[in-house]
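Go through this one:
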Amino acid sequence: MADSGLVLVDKPTGWTSHDVVARVRRLAGTRRVGHAGTLDPMATGVLVVGVERATKLLGHLALADKAYLATMRLGWATITDDSEGEPLGGASAEAVTEAVTEATVRTGLTALTGEIDQVPSAVSAVKVDGRRAYARVRAGQAVDLAPRRVLVSRLDLLALRRDEPGLVDLDVVVECTSGTYVRALARDLGAALGVGGHLTALRRTRVGPFAVDDCVTLAELEEQAELAGRAGAGHPGVVSVPLDRAVTGGFVRRDVTADQARLLAHGGKLPAVGIGGTYGVFGPDGRVVALVREERGSARPLVVLRPA
């Protein structure tokens, strides 16, 4: 059986997150594989993939903050808010030159920083009456999505380029909570400046504590799996962050006694110790037992990672 843990993949452009999961399933030799936080096919960078018991972590890791490097193009909007969609219209070259200056861009980015109400991109995975928004748009239906409260903790301009007449490309760094659409930030900046905007490049550089420098490419995963097979080790060679280390890296840690670990592994509750949010509980052997959350004076298991 494959080891339990995380595979930190540097997703290539053109691949869906599901494509990556399917490849890891084949290399790991197990169906129990999932990912934390979808990346669009055009995007690259950190995709956190869970294998075996680590799939139980993914719903919690998906709530972590994320960081991106992005390129926004001002001059016209698209139906998908990125370069893969049909153009919706924009502004004249003269209007772009007049409206888009470094000062107006910085002011616009500042207005999109902090807690904001953001309307998700129409072509998104948000469900409308039980059906994904992107499926409705592709079927020719109009989609009206409600705004969502998100936190953009950083939105800084790195470079402003005028490589083509009537177009301005902005390289920006984004740090935000899960559920924030960087495509929508490009759309809203373009709308605020009156010239239209969309995203042309996106690279996720961090998910919670996991950075792109910690990732492996799919080619490297293939090579690892092949080497493991030659050595007679079977499939376990794909996991890059073992389960215990994944919890240590992603959550606050609490150590408990053997009796407490046994109780928790059976689904029991422990006394609260005043730790806020979800955290990991480890037994005296240093292995993770569960993710827990405290409420009403007790620490209740959300996910048992090491059954009794």
In short: The first strand starts at residue 5 and ends at 11.
